[in-house]
Design brief:
Blueprint (H helix, E strand, L loop, with lengths): L10 E4 L6 H10 L17 E3 H13 L3 E3 L4 E3 L1 E4 L15 H11 L2 E4 L11 H7 L1 H14 L2 E4 L4 E7 L30 E5 L2 H7 L8 E8 L3 E5 L14 H9 L6 H13 L4 E5 L3 H5 L6 E2 L2 E2 H4 L3 H7 L3 E6 L8 E9 L16
Parallel strand pairs: 11-12
Antiparallel strand pairs: 1-2, 3-4, 5-6, 7-11, 8-10, 9-15, 10-16, 12-15, 13-14
Helix pairs in contact: 1-2, 4-5, 4-7, 5-8
Bound molecules: zinc ion.
Amino acid sequence: MPEEILDDDSILLCSNCFRDEGLRIDSNKIGVESSEECPNCNSSSGKKLTQQLIQELAWRFFVSGTTIRCEYGAAPVIQCNEYHYGKSDISPSAWLENDIKLIEEAAKIGFFHYGPRLWMVGEVEPLKDLQQESSRDKIIERVLQEYPEKLFANGTKFYRLRVNPNNPAAPEEYDSPPLEFSGRGRLDSTEFSVMYGSQDIDVCIHECRASADDDIYVATFITVRELRLLDLTHILEEDNTEFESLDMAIHMLFLAKSHSYEICRAIAKAAKHAGFDGVIYPSFFSLMRTGGHPFETSYGLSLRRYHPEREKYVGAYTIENFALFGHPLQAELVKIDSINRLIITQVGYQGHFGPVEY
Ligand SMILES: [Zn+2]
């Protein structure tokens, strides 16, 4: 999203200006309350929109709202910017036509069909090499060399959830599952158990796909010695393009669905082999939980790489999850601090709208 700072906070439109129900609801969410009359539709009850808010609304509805996920990566079908002002070329539903004109005029932007740069849809060399078994090991070797180690100090607290355990009060229920139940998650294999944990309980709930019908328990663990983890959430400093970026490859890998697990498992095994106690990796649910947008760009450049406050930008959208190898409880790397039943009273996704055709 273009980040121009506009100091003009005069009101141009309001949520009642729009015909499309999704735009009305989204603009009602981001608009500001004011008893001033809307200069466009004269409503005093609609939430008021400044030029900056209209630009935000346009990005959220038309760019984020048309983003399509690919096997690896994701890209919006529509983009908007000031260079296309007066030259919009999209074909929206009839009920959106006038709404778009209002937005274009107020925000001085135009909408256009976006041909994504190919890295956004997974054309990233190290990622392609990871997908090929013949070249996978050489990239994993780079991963082990280029990503840093992070130490969990003795006494670090974390959580682990279990859904419907047989004996909820028994500590061993919360260790890694036995091998015969391994091999279904992102990092565990049939011959390799891991214990998934997080310092964020909400992430645990999402990661284990718990619903309000489940009987859920949460164990609070404490590490009993220093643990060495390979930190895959680290942002690599690179001087190449997105097409050659290992950082982008790993970022995309952990935001991809289950077809990517085979590669993640190979990385986990290599990390174990190299002597690590576990790996820290970006949660698949980072984006949902933090409201981030995958592979966000500004004029075709990845914000992950080129944002002026890069670490802060990436940090705000990354939730760290980790996996400890083997059976950490049995091996006395960690101990149970307490176990609680967890009652979910609300499962909510905050959403926004997008167009149905363009
Ligand atoms: Zn209005």
